[in-house]
Amino acid sequence: MSGRPMPCSPQEIGALFLFEKLTAEQLGRLCAEGRVEGFDPGPVYAEGDPAGCFYVLLEGTVVLSRRVGGDDVEVSRTSRRGVYAGAMQAYLGDRVRQVYNNSLRVTAPSRFFVLPADTFASIMREWFPMAVHLLEGLFFGSKSTQRAIGQRERLLALGSLSAGLTHELNNPAAAAVRATAALRERVGRMRHKLRIISAGTYDRETLANLIDIQERTAERVAKAPVLSPLEASDREDALCDWLDDHGIPDGWRIAPTFVQAGLDRDWLDQVAAAVDEATLPSAVGWLSYTVETELLMDEIEDSTSRVSHLVDAAKQYSQLDRAPFQVADVHELLDSTLLMLSGKFGQRIRVVKEYDRTLPRIPAYPAELNQVWTNLIDNAVAAMNGTGAEGTLTVRTARDHDRLLVEFGDTGTGIPPEVRDRVFDPFFTTKPVGEGTGLGLDISWRIVVNKHHGSLRFESEPGDTRFQVLLPLTAAPPDETTEEPV
């Protein structure tokens, strides 16, 4: 937006703190190559437009704002003469994208000294060559440092996740190995018992009854009820008494297995009625091996299913073999991240899920949202570990007008008031030296705000800190030419 041309006075601009050290000749050149413009209340330039001018306030009131999701968030409001905005990085040339990084408007009739971006760049390089070199080094050095530390943080997070996943995989894998070894032993004993039975003088009908009981026992194992410890203890005592009464040796060892399989006295009465007294001990032993093999196979199935579930969760977390931008279910993303980070929770942190399952799937970059969840959960766990007491992590989803809300609440120490304005700043961290890079929230903010056009905010007090991610329910297809924030 162009303003009204006005006279440029070297004395007036020389009185500004920005130009007070310049010579009369330099001030004259500024007025010759620049201009003074007057603006009525309204916009001066918009965020994202090509950065064509450098603006210095002479009089009036200016408001700077940034686009966050669908809203303009006010960053600064001032009437101080000499404040500047606009093409402040013109001296970097085409090595950076020359666009306005914020929007500028005036709330009262205002005047600016306006310098074209190319003129501002040439003057900076001509008058202040050393300063330009220092600024270039600071700018690109900061970018390089941020990129390197960001990669380091991702590697540290990957290492932590890998350790947690390995731990989670080790438990079911080890259980499957143990169960397989035990199953091999039980099958060997079953073959031995079968040899004894086949060498006996059992008639065809008795053998048929045994096989029928074996089949029905296997079916009963699959439908075994879950008993309380007291119910299981009472049933074990009853089965021990029955086995002792019928002369079955090692009843104390067999009874717990039968109880776990859902067998009771009535079932054993049916077995006793199907065979004669001499055959009963062999029949009970045969059924014991049958029950044990079924339970071991169930254990192997549960363990391998757990491994498969963990692998699926890891794949969901990393979004392997999936398009970067897709319509995703945030609950699947949250569950996979919680599972991947479950090794960090330990016994002291309880996880509560308050999901609104009626929420629709949303267009998003799932792998990057998982990175946001990881950063926020990691911070919450660190805050709760700092209290020395048990904690609760609450993950909640809900609809907030035309956006989807994902909230992470923790019962940790809270964020001190004096640092709340800095939590999203790059390299700022309250963690001990070596435990945090200060980029987690900065990366999360850029993923949520820049990449998904949402917003990230927080509320905090000791014992109740909540980080809220707000994501649009609908979005246009991504522009593949835009620069990614991370």
TrEMBL record:
Transmembrane segments: none annotated. Residues 296-475 form the Histidine kinase domain. Residues 44-124 form the Cyclic nucleotide-binding domain. GO terms for biological process: phosphorelay signal transduction system. SUPFAM superfamilies: ATPase domain of HSP90 chaperone/DNA topoisomerase II/histidine kinase, cAMP-binding domain-like. Signal peptide: none annotated. InterPro entries: cNMP-bd_dom (IPR000595), cNMP-bd_dom_sf (IPR018490), HATPase_C_sf (IPR036890), HATPase_dom (IPR003594), His_kinase_dom (IPR005467), RmlC-like_jellyroll (IPR014710), Sig_transdc_His_kin-like_C (IPR004358). One of its GO terms (molecular function) is protein histidine kinase activity. Keywords: Kinase, Plasmid, Transferase, Two-component regulatory system. PROSITE patterns: CNMP_BINDING_3 (PS50042), HIS_KIN (PS50109). It is an enzyme of class 2 (transferase). This is histidine kinase.
